[in-house]
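## Example record

The block below lists the input lines for one assembly entry, exactly as stored, with component labels intact.
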Amino acid sequence: MSSATLAPASPASTTAPPAPASHGRRRRLQHRSVIATILLAVLLLFFLLPILYLFSVSLMGQNETGQGVLVSPNPQWTNWSDVLTQSNLLLSILNSLIAAIGGALITLLFALPAAWAIVRYRTGGSTLSATIMSPWLLPPIVAVVPLFTLLRIAGLNNTLLGLTVLYGLMNIPVGIWLLEGFMRKLPRELDEAAKLDGAGAFRVLVSIVTPLVAPAVVAIGIIVAILNYNEFLLATFIAPGKDTQTLPVLLSLFYGERTPHYGKIAAASIIGVIPVYAAAVLGQRWLVGGLTSGAVK
Amino acid sequence: MADAALTVRPRRPRGQSRREAWAHRLFVTPSVLTLLILGLYPLLFIIAAALSESTLGKPFQSWVGADTLAAVLGDADTVAAFLRTVVYALGVSLASLVLGVVVALALQSAVRGGSLVRTLVLLPMFMPPVVVGTLWKLVYNSGGGLLATVVGFFGGDRQAVAPLSSTSWAMPAIGLADVWEWTPLVALLVFTALVAQDHEIVEAARLDGAHGFRLFWSVTLPSIAGVLAAAFFIRLVLAFKVFDLVFMMTSGGPGQATTTSSYEIYQAVFREFDVGKAAAITLVLAVIVTIVTIPVALITRRLQANHE
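Predicted C-alpha cells for the full assembly:
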C-alpha cells in the first residue's frame, strides 16, 4: 500500500502514458503497473494464442488447414465425433490415466518414507538425496534399451502394468526432492513429542507426518501424474501395442497416416489434453506450492 | 537449511535406539533399490554395450574395446549433433530464464495478475510434449499456418514461411516451442521468490531513492539469485532431454539440421538396430550433460547457501 502513496514522488511515475490514462480511475495508477499490465497481456497472448489456434484447427475441414484460414467459417464438429468413435482415443486416454495415477501412487508410497528419513534422520548422510536424484539429470533415451531388456525378461513388456510400475519407480527421485522442501518446515517438537509418548518410527510417519504434509502429497501426486500422463518416449517403446498404447503414443501415430487430417489430429489433441487441464485447474491451489518447493527454499 | 542441520550436528540423538535407525534405513530401502535398477543397471548395461558388438536382438556379442567409442567421436555427424545439443540446451534455457523473469515481474506489478491469470500462464507446461509438437507444427505449417497467416497479414510473403523445412530455421523453431512450453515453470518459480522477498528491505531501498531498474538490479536480483540459478538448472536438464518435439516436428531433418543427440541415439537403436553405437553416443552424451550441468548445480547451491 505504502508504495502506491509514495510513488507520485518518484520521477518514473510522473510521466504517465496519455493513451490508457483517459479513464479517470486509471490516471492514479503507476506508470510502471500500466506497462506491466500491457506486457502481461502480450505475454498471455503468446502463451494462449497457440492453444486457441489448436482449438480452431480442430474444427477445420481437410482442405482448410494450410490455406491461411484462422477460423473455419463452417466448423466441422464431426472431427471431434469422428476421433471419439473411429479411433482408439478414449481407450488410450484411459490407459494414460491408469498408468499416470497408478504410477503416482507407487511414487508417493516409496518417496514419502524415504524423504522423511532423509530429512529428519539424515539416513544415508548428506549425499543420498543427491545420489538418488542423479539419474534424473540424464536424457531418458539413455535408459530405454536396458529397461526394455529388463522388462522383457520380467515378462512385463507391452503391458500397462509394466509401464505403470516403471513410471512409479522412475519418479521417486522427483517425489523425494519435492517432498523434502515441505518436510523441512515441519517443527521437530511434533514428532519428538509423539516419540516420547511411545510411538515407533512407522507410527510417527503414518499418524503424524503424513497428515501434516497432506497438501504437499496431493500437489506432488498431481505433478507426478501429469508427468506420467504426458510421457511419450518410454511408453512408445515399452507399451506400443494397440490395447496398451497411451495417449501420446496414439497421437504420434496420427501423423504417420498417408493423408494426415490436421483437423482430426487437433481434435484428438484437445480431447486428450482435457484431463490434464482439469487436474491442473482443480488442483491449482496445491499445485503452485508443490511446483515451487524444490527450487524456492 | 543445511546450515541449521550442521549446527545441531548431523549425529543422531543418543537416546535413539538401534531399532529406530533400522526403521529409517527400511524407509529409504525401496528408493535405493530403485536407484540401483533405474540408475546403476542401465549405466553398467550401456558401458558393456558400448564396449562390445551389440544389436537390439543380441546384445554383448563380442568385445570390441574402445573401437566404437573412437568411431563415434571420429564421426563428424555425431560430433555435430553433440554440439547442436549443447548450443540448443544453453540457448533455450537462457531464453526461458530471461522471458520467465519478465513474465514474473509483469505478474507481480500488473494491475490484474490474479490466480486466474497465473493458471492461464501455466497451461503450456501441462500440455503433453507430443501435443506441443503437433500444435507448433500446425503453427509453422508452410503456406497457411498461424505464423504464415500472421506474416501474410502484415504484408509478407505467406508462401515463403516454412521454418521447419529450412536448415537454418528448423532448430530455432523447435527451440521456440520448447521455450513456450517451459517458460511458465521458470516464471512460476521466480514469481514465488519475488512474493517471498523481504518487503521491508525493498521499502527501505525505495525510501533511499532506489527504483525501477536500479531497485531490481541491486535489491531484487541478489535476493532471488538462488532461485534463478535453480530455475536455470532445472530448465537446462529439461532442455537436454528434448526428444518428443524433434520426433513430432521434424524427425531430425531437414537433413541433419535438428538431429540432437537424443534423436541420434533413437535412430541408432531403432533404425540401424546398432545398440553398440547408441550406447557409445549415450556415454559421451552423459559425460557432456554432466560437464555442462555440474557447474550450474554448484553455483545454485552456493547462491542458495549465501541467501540463507
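Chain A has two domains: 2-57, 84-292. The CA atoms of residues 92 and 250 of chain A lie 7 Å apart.
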